[in-house]
Structures are given as structure tokens and as C-alpha cells.
Amino acid sequence: MAAVILDGKKLSIKIRESVKTKAALLKEKGVTPCLAVVLVGDDPASLSYVKSKEKALADAGMESLDIKLPQETSEEALLAVIEDLNKNDKVHGILVQSPVPKHINEETVNSAVAPEKDVDCFHPVSVGNMVLERPGFLPCTPHGILMLLNEYNVKTSGAHAVIIGRSNIVGKPLANLLIRRNYNATVTICHTGTENLAKHTLQADILMAAAGKPCFIKPEMVKEGAAVIDVGINRVPDISAQKGYRVCGDVDPSVEQKAGYFTPVPGGVGPMTIAMLLSNVIEAAAAFAAKSACTAAYT
Ligand code: NAD
Description:
Elements (H helix, E strand, L loop, with lengths): L3 E2 L2 H21 L5 E7 L3 H16 L3 E7 L5 H13 L5 E4 L9 H7 L11 H8 L8 H12 L8 E5 L6 H8 L7 E5 L6 H5 L4 E4 L17 E4 L3 E4 L7 E4 L12 E2 L6 H29 L2
Parallel strand pairs: 1-11, 2-3, 2-4, 5-6, 5-7, 7-8, 8-11
Antiparallel strand pairs: 9-10
Helix pairs in contact: 1-9, 6-7, 6-9
The structure holds nicotinamide-adenine-dinucleotide.
The site of nicotinamide-adenine-dinucleotide has 24 residues, from helix 9.
């Protein structure tokens, strides 16, 4: 029996509609939610991610401040740009598109963004808040995945979730959120040091692949009826495609026949990531509006 498709596109439209309503309410209060999007260099994949984020912001009635810097921009110059954005009251969220050029330390850049504008949840303070379950932004891709599981009533409590990948933006935060009491999953994280990967993946009630390896999860690695979440976005050369490449996930599409639930690529996790980013910008703008109202009342 074919799997239930976890339709991220459909759910993201619902979330984006609610974001649009909240943006309009904030505008009525004189605050137009705005995300500064900083891109260093001209990597084509990064350019296309930035464009789709800016389009999503515009569609939701929000503003984007588009800052494109040349590849040779120094770390010092980039930090100065971020500092200006931190101080700019019209900007509520700051996103520095990764990867940054090799001569720039990504950790330093992530730590330079003011935590109250860190809508990507990359700053050490944001990560600490998430791990300690304190108020703060949740990381967009893991949060989007959890929203998707919730929407389709995929049971996480008591489930064994196996995550492939230990990155700071997907694997680690996803594992952290899944062990919260409200999700209550038991988590295994696999990575390049894992021996006999299939031994682990076959135990997964929920299998989450974020390795960046095209179609490498095959049906024989998946338990019958498992929920399979494909986070991978890989460009593979394809001369028959107009752009010369096609996008595929980490999971072979034939896994759909064996899985109980399945996220397509594209149209699964990707749109959820953007929806949760918009949602974080609204949260940041709402917090700014509340703080401004409070300040006004006491001055
Ligand atoms: P990454 O690219 O930084 O690292 C890959 C991780 O996978 C590493 O932790 C590594 O240990 C692990 N890994 C690689 N090969 C493996 C193997 N053969 N067996 C076991 N583990 C292996 O990770 P990332 O930044 O999380 O990105 C992973 C993929 O997810 C990429 O394709 C990326 O484009 C995609 N991604 C998608 C979204 C989205 O919104 N859908 C968001 C972020 C990342």
C-alpha cells in the first residue's frame, strides 16, 4: 500500500495565510514585519533560496531588506553590516544565507546576530534556549518537520526516531525537540561515523534523512510502514532538464511504496522551512511591537 503523503506545500500555504493575517494586524499597529536577508557571494543555489524567501515575505505582506555583498567581503565588513541591522528598528529578523565564503567564520557571524532577531535560531543563546525549553525561536527546518508530523497525526510519543545527519541546523536540533516531553520520542542520531547504517534505519518508526546524499536511502533500509521524512535537497545533473539539473532528496522515491508516511521532494520539508521562517519573523516583529508599546506607555 502506498504511503500517506505528508504534503508540506499544502500545510505551508495554511501557515502562510495565518502569517499574512498576523502581518496585517501588526501593520495596523504601525509595525511592518521585516527580514533582512544577507547574501555574500553569488552561489546559484543560495541565490535561488534567497529569492524564494523574499518572494514568500512579499506574498505574506512583509518586507525584506535585500543585502547582496561581493564574494571578497571581509569578515569584519560583514560583521559591521550585521551590527547596523541589529540596531535598525525597522528590521525584526536577520538571516545570513549559508554557506558564507570560506574566509569568513560562520560561527562568528551567527554569534553576531542579536538573539531577538535570530529568526534562524543559530545564535548560541537561541540554541541554549531551545535545549533548555525556554521561550525563543525554534529552528525552522526541525520545527517545520514537527508541524508536518502533527498535522498528519504521526505518533511521536514512544516512537523510535532515527535521524541521519548531525548538523547544527537539522540533525542536532531535531533530536533535541523530539525528546521534549510533548513529542516523547526515543532518538538515535546516525552520522558518517555510524557503522552498519541499515541496522539502525530498519529500527526506525520515524526515519529522518538529512545527509545530503541523493537517493541513498533504499527500500531495504526502511521498516514497513515507517514515517519517512526526507530533508535532503540535492541537485543532480540531468541533461533532459531545462536547468541542466534536477532536485532530489536523500530518499529513493521507491521507498514510498514501503513507507506508511512519506514526504515528497520537492513539496515536503522545503516549503515548511520557509513557512516557519516567516512565522519566526512575525514572532520577532510582535515582540518588538509589544516592547515599543510598553516603552511608550512608560515615557
Ligand atoms: P550537512 O550537509 O552539514 O551534513 C550532512 C550530515 O550527514 C553530516 O552530519 C554527516 O555526518 C551525515 N552523513 C553524510 N553522509 C552520511 C552517510 N553516508 N551516513 C550517515 N550519515 C551521513 O547537513 P545539513 O546542513 O543538515 O544538510 C543535509 C541535507 O539537508 C542537504 O541536502 C541540505 O541541502 C538539506 N537541507 C534541507 C533543508 C530543507 O528545508 N528541506 C534545510 C536544511 C538542509
